[in-house]
Amino acid sequence: MSSPYEIRAVEADTPEVAAAKARVRRRRSIALAIALALFAITFYTLTIVKMGPALFDRAL
């Protein structure tokens, strides 16, 4: 077991490992953006549906 005061060597990533990590991060970011967009669209659609068709028949 290592001590919290133990100094560890930090190894630099090779270019291949860095590129692979960047691809994984990009895919995760895109997946989160798509999930957030679907979540927002779902709430927008449900809000319009709950208001019903009378929403568009009101007097301005």
Automatic annotation (TrEMBL):
Transmembrane segments annotated in the record for this chain: 30-49
UniProt keyword annotations, A-Z: Membrane, Transmembrane, Transmembrane helix
Protein name: Protoheme IX farnesyltransferase
